[in-house]
Amino acid sequence: MPHNNSWSLRTSRSRLPDSHNSHSSCLVMDLSAEVSAALRLLGDTTKTVPATFQHLLQTVTEDVTKSPPEATHPGGDDDGSVSRCHAALTTLFLEAVRDGHNVTVITSVLEDLNWPSERINETTKAVESHRSALQSKLASLGTFPPHIVDIDWKLSYHVRSSDGEEGGGAMYQVTLHTEESGGGRGKVSFSCSLAQLTHLVTRLRQASRCIQKYASNS
């Protein structure tokens, strides 16, 4: 007679890098020359007046926290400079949050672009105030491989048939419950012997150790 047992394991989705990660301050933001030039212009008080700066900072903050994040034309753009500054500041926000750069890194980047301390403080404050919301928005974008969120299994014993044929012994019936891009749910089911299941678990443990080793050396 089949003997069934059930077991479940919950896993959590990987999080975006935390803003206080111990090695975040060692990272350097990878900004293009065009973005850097536009940010330099935005930080120049002789070329970008306070009212324009405040308007762009508010507009970008509102744009990146929308669902999904989007860009709004800032207006007042005769030569395209305001649009370039808007796009550059948006890039700064997204890069800072996506790659887990903390206030120290952002401040260093803006200081290298000759930003005054007042504008740096306002910008870093805006990034930190909306970091959690922006992390959630970024996590919901794009496509990604299915995540395993639950596992069900049962053990079945195959006994001798009525014809006297030998059964296959103990077999595991495994179902992986997955969460796919966009929140959809899926299932992956398979059967395996104890030896096959043991081999699978061993390989998963090896992969886990490799990831932990990589993370500790980063």
DSSP helical segment count: 7
Structural class: alpha+beta
Helicity, in percent? 40-55%
Order of helices and strands: HHHHHHEEEH
Unreliable stretches covering 5 or more consecutive residues: 1-27
Envelope shape: elongated
Strand numbers in spatial order across the main sheet: 1-2-3
Rg (CA only) = 26 Å
Report on the structure:
It is a single chain. With 218 residues, this protein is of the alpha+beta class. It has seven helices and three strands; from the N terminus they run ααααααβββα. It has helices at residues 33-43, 50-64, 81-98, 103-112, 117-129, 131-139, 194-217; strands at residues 147-158, 169-179, 185-192. β2 and β3 form a beta hairpin. α1 packs across α3 (81-98), α2 (50-64) crosses α3 and α4 (103-112) runs antiparallel to α5 (117-129).
Summarize the structure.
With 218 residues, the chain is of the alpha+beta class. The chain has seven helices and three strands.
Strand-helix topology:
Blueprint: H1 33-43, H2 50-64, H3 81-98, H4 103-112, H5 117-129, H6 131-139, E1 147-158, E2 169-179, E3 185-192, H7 194-217
Antiparallel strand pairs: 1-2, 2-3
Label this structure with key terms:
elongated; 46% helix; 3 strands; single chain; 3-stranded antiparallel sheet; alpha+beta; 7 helices; 218 residues
